Amino acid sequence: MLRFIFISLLLIYSCQIFESNEINEISDAQFTEIQDTDYILVDVRTTEEYQSGHIQDAVNFDFYSESFQNDILTLDKSSSIILYCRTQNRSTKTANYLKENGYKEINVIAGGITSWVKNGNDLVYNFSDETISTEE
Fold first, then answer.
1. pLDDT tens across 47-95, in order?
2. How far, in Å, CA of 44 to CA of 97, rounded?
3. What is the domain-level CATH number for residue 53?
4. Distance CA 50, CA 59 (A)
5. What's the pTM?
6. What's phi and psi for 62, nearest 5 deg?
7. Which of 25, 44, 73, 87 has the greatest count of CB atoms below 10 A from its CB?
8. How far is 99 from 107, CA to CA, in rounded Å?
9. pLDDT (tens digit per residue) in 89-124
10. pLDDT score recorded for residue 129
11. Do 28 and 119 form a contact (C-beta atoms < 8 A)?
């Protein structure tokens, strides 16, 4: 019986050790400190939410769109992907979906855009072709 428990624990922990495509949760402060710009920032809120203010350089994939699952898989699998939504619910679901489909470097901004704004970070607003930032 002891041998069975030992082998079971060994198998469980070894699977966790060899898991290569982990989802990382990063704070808004960690995100703003990223010097390497070789990542894709993805906002998975609705188009209306995105237009009401988003993080600079984010691309929008509407989580509730009928084509979302196909659209999100057009992202380059070799790229570092940083996801956010309103509170981290949709972005975490998206991260898990990407992980299941072979994406390796996936990050989620903790607390979503709600945390981002609460912590005093800027948003960008798009009105037709014009972009307005809250930066001064």
1. 999 999 999 999 999 999 999 999 999 999 999 999 999 999 999 999 9
2. 13
3. 3.40.250.10
4. 9
5. 0.79
6. -70, 110
7. 44
8. 11
9. 999 999 999 999 999 999 999 999 999 999 999 999
10. 45
11. yes
